[in-house]
User: Fold this.
Amino acid sequence: MDKSTWIPILGLTLVLVAGPWAPAPSATAQRASGQSAPYIGFVYPAGGQQGTTVEVRLGGQRIDGAHAALVSGEGVSAEVSQFYRKLSNQEVTLLREQLRELRGEVAQQKKAKQEVDEATEQFIVRLEKRIGEWVNRPACEAVSSIALVKVTIDRDAEPGAREIRLIGARGLTNPMVFHVGQLPESSRKPMLTSPFQVLGKEALAQRKRPAEEIESRIELPCTVNGQIASGEVNRYRFEARAGQRLVISTKARELVPFIADAVPGWFQPVMALYDSDGRELAFNDDYRFKPDPTLFLDVPRDGEYVLTITDALYRGREDFVYRISIGQLPFVTSVFPLGSRSGQTPDVELFGRNLEQTQLSLPSPDAAPEIYQAVADVDGLASNTFPLAVDALPEGLDREPNNRPADAQPVKLPIIINGRIDRPDDWDVFKITANAGDRIVAEVHARRLDSALDSMLKVTDSSGKPLAHNDDHIDAAAGLNTHHADSYVAITLPEDGDYFVHLGDTTRDGGPEHGYRLRLSRPRPDFALRVVPSSLNLRGKSAAAVTVYAIRRDGFEGPINLNVEDLPDGFTAAPVTLKAHQNEAKLFVRSHRNNMDQPVDLTIVGRAKMLHRTVTHPAVPAEDRMQAFLWRHLVPAQDLKALVINAAAGRPPTRVRPPKLEPKDLPTGPPQFSKNQVAGRLRQLNLLFDEWLLTDDFYRRKVAQCEVFGAAEPVVAKKK
Assistant:
């Protein structure tokens, strides 16, 4: 695999940063504010149907005191119902001691034929559930704390990807993907925290599932949600009718782009489809260049079919989350052309399955040059999204035959040519006429627009002499790919005359899905911006920094002025300039408020002078993430949010402390704790009490033990 990786998330871009401007860890900006950043690593289930309420689990780290949740966009609300922090051995010992006492009380009441106290029974259930969630040594500390969140989705909420974040004692977490779906949904029972696997004893950490949880029966169409544990295969049985054109589409790496401490760094799902006799009808571990698989099946006959999903390496953990949509669903496999010129309405031809009587959602004619996500609508059901490019340059189509210099298609610069490598071993050749010293750029947009083309560019003179060539070119602002497959050539031509630009597929493949947009022009200096992190937590009346990265294009090396626009009340930020050739800078945001209940949105804008005009671009929020211990990626988010917290004040207790025991009721005996141990013990008791895991009586007795038994140092025998 290429050392640069591109991964889809939220319909935007997940970028491997390779090169001299690779970012530092995303926690840098948080350390500037004197705290470690709260983090969430998975959401399960990672979506829900319109018009429903679903309970989701968010696994993370440093999310203590999680008390609120945010979901981007309109029509979706979220409320934290429970928080399970990682408990220590001593805390679990306390809970087990209390559980034994309560069970004993209930047993005595039943033996005496007394009415069992309902509150006591509910407390027992709460303790059993909490202890059942505990793992002494989690497989991954980064997802070992759990927040339970109720997400309510309006019936008319727009389908598609959203962002969900938590607010806790340390502030706002990073965003994770949450999908609003249109199909009926089912979810497997959530996994508990996975235990650490010991080399040679891996079987001891395997999840033990009852037989009824191995296979689920479902009705089409639907979306199923699941998690893969180590060594597991999940099975789904359903009925289908002859002639149905099924689409089975998975979201996994799109939901959790990077699995912490894992190689290759993400969940690699593998799907297979079998008939009732166990014959394999379809198999897929990647959909073209995308790691998430998609299956297509023309159902051969009425009957039952079984879908299986597992990890390619049979790994698994609670953050190996997937969503599979199954049914006779609209699905776009390719489009042509891959874009249009600004001010024009594109005439797009769709290819795929179940696309009869389609209505398209396309960029508006006045859309600015950019890559947009479009969708096809069939009877109110949305297809998968697909990218369409908008540019300001003149456009044209490639004309066949043009696979040799003798048949080359003459073009006049500047132009964007929309074409396809129609068949294996096909080449498209274009002839340009230029003068000595002209600087010419040839750039392919194909893989960045979901094309299957793995392009190759070369430039030759009129005699056929090669002057330049390129296979893969890193574009740190592009994504949705597993490697940089688009080509880029910038060349200064040596003399007056004709030159030929050759475009083909590196793998010598071709077909209708191998579309491209080839830009032939003089350099168009420009830039893009990314800002890390997308969640900025500030202590009261202090400052914190974000890092802004510049992605320079077509040789642009000039200064870029950065500014935070439309600052909310109580915030200030001094402008910063990215100097010539500089690719990153810190920008400090200062708060004049003590604390806030809800975060605010920030907008960072960059401006640069180019010739006689000023170019302006917003900075796209992003998260800095590591893949497989080495490569760093920028994961764009939908919003840049800031929150002011007062960590010293903390949150008020959720329960009223009971009165202390009377002196006559205090325990007696030798000291059990040293004075240094008492503070830690009391902190544990207070936390467990606030989490409604200790009864008033048990809490009072244990606090009294600390106060009495910690009054003097315990006697320790001296060594001779």
Q: What stands out?
A: The longest strand covers residues 613-627. Confidence is low (pLDDT under 50) at residues 1-34, 712-720. Residues 527-637 form a domain with the Immunoglobulin-like fold (CATH 2.60.40). The longest helix spans residues 89-111.
